[in-house]
Design a protein that fits this description.
With 80 residues, the protein is mainly β. Helix content is 0%, strand content 52%. The strands form 2 sheets. A 4-stranded antiparallel beta sheet has the order 4-5-6-7, with no helix packed on it. A hairpin with a 5-residue loop joins β4 and β5. The radius of gyration is 13 Å and the shape is globular. The termini are far apart.
Length: 80
């Protein structure tokens, strides 16, 4: 959940990041990611999003335009 807006962010194994308007129960935006993801978090001030991918990579995005700010990996090699 976004800390100030009535929005929720989801990611999935389909490689999509989606923004949902909770009162309207509708998706308002979706962005194709580089691959399947399992985890998403929003910063306490609502300005950044962190996404964890199944291949061990993680990325940080700006909430306002979903621009990638940083990407890294917590492990080497291929995911099982």
């Amino acid at each position: 959940m976004h800390p100030q807006k009535t929005e929720m962010i989801t990611v999935g194994r389909d490689g999509m990041l989606a923004v949902w308007d909770m009162p309207k129960r509708k998706q308002t935006l979706n962005v194709k990611l580089e691959g399947p993801a399992d985890a998403v978090a929003i910063s306490p001030d609502g300005t950044h999003i962190a996404v964890g991918f199944i291949n061990g990579k993680f990325s940080a995005f700006a909430y306002e335009d979903f621009r990638m700010l940083k990407q890294n990996s917590h492990r080497k090699g291929k995911a099982i």
